[in-house]
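Need Sec-independent protein translocase protein TatA's 3D structure for a figure. Predict it.
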Amino acid sequence: MPSLGFPELILILVIALIIFGPGKLPSVGSAIGKALSEFKKSSRELVSDEPINKDEKI
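Structure prediction for Sec-independent protein translocase protein TatA:
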C-alpha cells in the first residue's frame, strides 16, 4: 500500500477546507485529534492488559 506524501496531504487539506470551511476546520481537527488519542490509549490498554491510568481500578 502506498504511503501518503506531501502532495497527497496538501490535497486532503484543500478538500477538507472546501468541505468544512475555514471556520469549522479547527474544531474538526481537534475532534479528530481527540479521537486518535483515545484510540491509541485504548489500544495500549488492550496490549498491556492493564489500565494506563493508575488511579483507575477495575
